[in-house]
Design brief:
The complex is a heterodimer of chains A (288) and B (430). Chain A is built from 13 helices and 2 strands; from the N terminus they run αββαααααααααααα. By secondary structure, chain A is an all-alpha fold. Chain A has a single domain, classed as MetI-like (MetI-like fold, Orthogonal Bundle). Chain A is globular, with a radius of gyration of 23 Å. In chain B, the strands form 2 sheets. In chain B, strands 5, 6, 7, 8, 9 and 11 form a 6-stranded mixed β-sheet that branches. A 5-stranded mixed β-sheet of chain B has the order 2-1-3-10-4. The longest helix of chain B is centred in the first third of the chain and has 26 residues. Chain B is globular. The N terminus of chain B is likely disordered. Classes of the chains: A mainly alpha (288), B alpha/beta (430). Chains A and B meet through helix 2 and helix 12 of A and helix 3, helix 18 and helix 19 of B.
Chain lengths: 288, 430
């Protein structure tokens, strides 16, 4: 069983891909594990041991950024999973204009993230933004979506979910399509109500799609940067800073070694969350 | 032996061909690339300068590229310089930000420019690399950091220009009672939040003359020097007193200038280059704005914190150092200076000898000149007397100015940020 199958390709055939892989992935990864221990100005790198990591961990904005990263990743991932499934159930049922509706729902995924971020930061302006102008018309004093430090991160998360839920829905639609209608027919004959069908048939059988959506959106959330940068640049103050934006700011300041150390830490954080999760999902899958 | 001869012949051939090409190149047009920030005034000034230069030197053409300001621009400049991809000529801050570019290695030596003799010593100091060579020429006028005020509001309420912080707060109180915004703040452009701290430096050095040297040597700290911590206190005070515009968290620099120009707000702490924005966007209100230095505790020690203009530099790696230097020589001449004034009007005292201010300067510029003329009433901002400036100051000042973090806490946090900069630059004593 453990015997390796001989590759169907000779070495010269796979060599070009191996070179590309080495130059573009292996070398930079190895290099970053060296540069994270140095004071680096792109020309000269001076070895300073663990100082960069010590600096990073003593940085108050980092501890905040770490917590924010986790909050942001779990909120966006959870919302995309739940909403994605509900939307997919809706869009696979016999609704009017199904094809058009599927397209409309997927459209935000195709738009540039920076464009979406800039648009929403205008819509969320505390006094002139459409949201608060509309709320004011109803007599409600709208919140400072992006300028209130308690709200900023959640406002960005809402935009991220709006933009990303289309992809989750698409994956779920594919998952739902692979469930044989015979199960539902049989359940209906046995007198199952719609809720029973959803909990006992749809949810267990769409599980592979759920796993894919959770893993993808969680990784996306943990390394999220573009929407946040376009909307608040981590502000007000450090209120919506996540790991990626803290790292970027070190890079901006010219602290390249420090920024690399941050990236190495982000790499380990993502690995530490995603790997056990994947193993757990795969192990449970065997039961079915 | 034959082989060697062959190679020698080939090399001679190549050299001849090379000289031929070079001679030909000198005759043909040269295109110099130029990178500047995207401030309206900067763009207009370079447009005027390059047009004037090309008129006199038809064989030189320019390709101008604009980059964003602030931290985003810093990042671009540093990365392009380090990778040898910077334009032939670029404009960038003088002082501590210039020092962070590793000027010894990255920038061409401009000590031998004929017009160096024309440039005031005070500017040369802030573009001199550690090895003592001058590596930049001034771009525009010196600026003051202080407070723009709306003259109409001051006249209507019968207010006087404050020379102490107490008087300033008393004015704000009256303005607030009259139902107006006393202080405009614009934290969408985070850099604009730093003014109350940075423009307070005249008062800091008046109270603690050694602060800059001790701060550079890692001896004096913001949190433990009461005079230095005051800037953070001021920021907290104007927030807590409810003087700010309602949308302070989302407003931009341009909106701040508009507020104080049109009388929506009475004060806006800013650098004096802000008048250029008003000229562009609210030309009818240019003379409704006045300017005064940020007041401290003692009216007898009232003075202005001064910012040197940015510099124009040539990267050492440029392929057209000679041509670029000749253009910089023009920028440093009285004619170059005049071309800039013609494009943007006068914005403050110029650092080039023979470049006189026109008679009809805007009111806010006229307000600023007495600080320079009386002598002893200006001091350079901290970033021109120390290489150390923490990169997170603008986030920290947004926090204080929005009531997220108490002032004392912020001063201590900024000290940590400064220590990080010292360590990452590998400076002695850090």
């Amino acid at each position: 069983m453990n015997m390796k199958q001989p590759s169907p390709y000779p070495y010269w055939f796979i060599a070009p891909a191996a070179v590309v892989y080495t130059v573009l992935f292996l070398v930079p990864t190895a290099a970053s594990f060296w540069f994270c221990f140095t004071r680096w100005d792109l020309d000269t790198a001076q070895f300073i041991g663990l100082d960069n990591f010590r600096q990073f961990l003593s940085e108050p904005s980092l501890t905040g950024g770490l917590v924010n990263t986790l909050i942001y990743a779990f909120i966006t991932s959870g919302a995309k999973t739940v909403l994605g499934l509900l939307l997919a159930v809706f869009l696979t049922s016999k609704v009017f204009g199904q094809g058009l509706m599927r397209n409309v729902m997927f459209f935000p995924t195709l738009v540039s993230t920076i464009g979406v971020g800039i648009t929403f930061s205008t819509l969320m302006h505390p006094t002139r933004g459409v949201f608060n102008v509309a709320l004011a018309a109803l007599g409600i004093d709208g919140p400072g979506w992006l300028v209130d430090p308690r709200l900023a991160l959640f406002s960005i998360a809402i935009v991220d979910v709006w933009k990303g839920v289309g992809l989750a829905t698409l994956i779920y639609i594919a998952g739902l399509a692979s469930i044989s209608p015979e199960y539902y027919d049989a359940a209906r004959v046995d007198g199952a109500r719609p809720w029973d069908s959803f909990w006992k048939i749809t949810l267990p059988l769409v599980r592979p799609a759920t796993v894919t959506v959770i893993i993808l959106s969680l990784i996306g959330g943990l390394r999220s940067f573009d929407v946040i940068w376009a909307m608040t640049r981590g502000g007000p103050g450090f209120a919506s800073d996540v790991l990626a934006s803290v790292i970027y700011k070190q890079y901006q300041a010219g602290f390249y070694g420090l920024a690399t150390a941050g990236n190495v830490m982000l790499f380990f954080l993502i690995a530490a969350i995603i790997l056990p999760l994947t193993f757990w999902f795969n192990a449970r899958q065997v039961e079915f | 032996m034959t082989k060697v001869t062959m190679r020698g012949l080939l090399m001679i051939g190549a050299a001849v061909a090379g000289f031929g090409l070079m001679a030909h190149g000198a005759m043909a047009d040269t295109t110099l690339t130029l990178s500047s920030d995207n401030n309206v005034d900067t763009v207009k000034a370079f447009d005027a300068l390059t047009k004037a230069y090309t008129a006199a030197h038809p064989d030189i053409k320019f390709e101008i590229d604009n980059r964003p300001g602030g931290a985003e621009g810093d990042n671009l400049v540093k990365t392009r310089l380090s990778t040898g991809e910077m334009a032939d000529i670029f404009q960038y801050n003088s002082g501590s930000l210039f020092q962070a570019l590793k000027p010894d290695k990255n920038l061409a030596d401009l000590s031998d420019l004929p017009n160096q003799a024309n440039i005031l010593e005070s500017f040369k100091l802030v573009v001199t690399s550690p090895d003592g060579k001058v590596r930049g020429v001034p771009f525009g006028a010196a600026m003051g950091g202080g407070i723009y005020y709306n003259k109409k509001i001051y006249a209507d309420l019968g207010l006087k220009i404050p020379t102490t912080w107490k008087d300033f707060i008393a004015n704000c109180e009256k303005i607030k009672a009259a139902g107006k915004v006393a202080v405009a703040q614009t934290y969408k452009d985070t850099w604009s939040s730093q003014l109350f701290v940075l423009a307070d430096f005249y008062n800091v050095q008046a109270a603690v003359p050694n602060f800059a040297a001790d701060y550079t040597a890692n001896k004096a700290k913001y949190a433990t020097t009461p005079a230095a911590a005051k800037g953070f206190d001021h920021l907290q005070e104007v927030f807590k007193a409810g003087y700010l515009n309602k949308d302070f968290g989302a407003a931009t620099f341009s909106e701040g200038m508009k507020m104080v120009a049109t009388g929506t707000a009475a004060h806006y702490p800013m650098l004096t280059f802000g008048i250029g924005d008003v000229k562009q966007n609210e030309p009818n209100n240019v003379n409704d704005i006045g300017f005064f230095a940020q007041p401290g505790d003692d009216a007898t020690k009232n003075g202005l914190t001064v910012w040197m203009p940015s510099g124009v530099y040539v990267p050492a790696a440029s392929k057209h150092v000679k041509e670029a230097k000749d253009f910089l020589n023009f920028v440093a001449s009285a004619e170059g200076c005049k071309a800039m004034i013609d494009a943007n009007g006068a914005t403050g005292p110029y650092l080039i000898k023979g470049c006189a201010l026109p008679k009809d300067v805007p009111a806010s510029v006229a307000d600023m000149l007495p600080y320079f003329q009386e002598g002893g009433h200006t001091a350079p901002a901290l970033e021109f007397v120390s290489p150390i400036k923490g990169p997170a100051l603008e986030q920290i000042t947004v926090e204080v100015g929005s009531g997220i973090r108490p002032a004392a806490d912020a001063a201590a946090l900024y000290d940590q940020d400064v220590a990080k900069q010292g360590k990452q630059l590998g400076l002695p004593n850090w």
